Amino acid sequence: MKIRHTEMTPNPDALKFVLMEALPISGVRQFDDAAKAEQDPLAKALFALGFVQSVFYTPEFVTVTKDSQLVWDAVIPEIKPVIEAEADNVTADATTTASASPEGGPTGDVLYDKIQDILNNRIRPALAGDGGGLEVIGLDGFTLKIRYQGACGRCPRAAAGTMRGIGHLLQTDVDPRLTVIAG
User: Fold this and answer.
1) Residue 105 falls inside a structural domain
2) Do 133 and 78 share a structural domain?
3) Distance between CA atoms of 49 and 18, rounded to whole angstroms?
4) Average pLDDT of the residues in 93-116
5) Please, is 117 exposed, middle or buried when counting C-beta atoms within 10 Å of its C-beta (0-12, 13-18, 19+)?
6) Same domain, 77 and 120
7) First to last CA, the chain
8) 150 Cβ partners below 8 Å, 6+ apart?
9) Between the CA atoms of 119, 125, 127 and 133, what dihedral angle is there, to the nearest 10 degrees?
10) Average model confidence (pLDDT) across the chain
11) Which of 34, 55, 89 lies at the terminal end of a domain, its last residue?
12) Strand runs (DSSP E) across the chain, as ranges?
C-alpha cells in the first residue's frame, strides 16, 4: 500500500502518513508500546525499528511518534517502506490489544450520548486532522475522563490547551457542570 504524503502535526515528534487506499478497519488502533503491538503486523513492524514510541492508525492514515532525540529526515526513509509493506497485512478482524476507541452508537444515557455526539462530530475530526484522536475512558457524574491518541498522546498542547477547549465546548453545548480530565 502506498503512502500519498506525510503531514507534520502540532507534536514535533509525531508525523502523519496519509495512505493512498483505506485500511480495512473501522475505528482506530492505538499502540503505546511494542508489547501491545504483538498481534498487529503494522504496529509490530514499526516498533521493531527501535525508535518508535507509539503507533496510531485509522483507515486513512498512520501516525508514528518517534524518539525526540532523532530528526524526521533520518527516520522517514526507514518508516515509509515498513508502512507500505505491512499495511497490506492489516485485517479487519485482527485480534489486537490495541486501545480501542469505539465511537459507538447511542447508549441510552442522555448526557453521555450528547457528549459522544459532540466528540464524534466536532472534536475527533479536528484531532484526526492533526494525526490524533481521543478515547473516552469513562463518565463519572459530570467528570469526563479522556485519553489522547496518536500525535495528541504525547503533545504538550493537547495536555493543556486542547483539553481546556474540549471542556469549554462541552460546558457550553452540553452541561456547564462538565469537567474533562486526562486518564
Assistant:
1) no
2) no
3) 20
4) 67
5) middle
6) no
7) 34
8) 14, 28, 30, 54, 56, 57, 63, 65, 127, 131, 132, 133
9) 70
10) 91
11) 89
12) 3-8, 14-19, 29-31, 52-57, 61-66, 132-140, 143-150, 179-182
| Total tally of structural domains belonging to the chain | 2
Q: Residue 140 is part of a domain; what is its CATH number? A: 3.30.300.130
Please give the Cα distance from 26 to 60 (Å, whole number). 10
Full residue range of the structural domain in which residue 117 is found: 110-182
Helix (H) / strand (E) containing 35? none
Do 115 and 59 have their domain in common?
no
DSSP secondary-structure letter at 29?
E
Domain contains 102: no
Helix/strand/coil for 2: coil
d(CA 107, CA 167): 21
**Residue showing cell 457542570:** 177
Residues 6+ positions from 175 with CB-CB distance below 8 Å: 111, 114, 142
* C-alpha cell recorded at residue 182: 486526562
Beta bridge partners, 149, equal 133
Question: Tens digits of per-residue pLDDT, 7-61?
Answer: 999 999 999 999 999 999 988 999 999 999 999 999 999 999 999 999 999 999 9
State the average pLDDT over residues 134-145: 96
142 and 174 in a single domain? The answer is yes
- Asked whether residue 32 is domain-assigned, the answer is yes
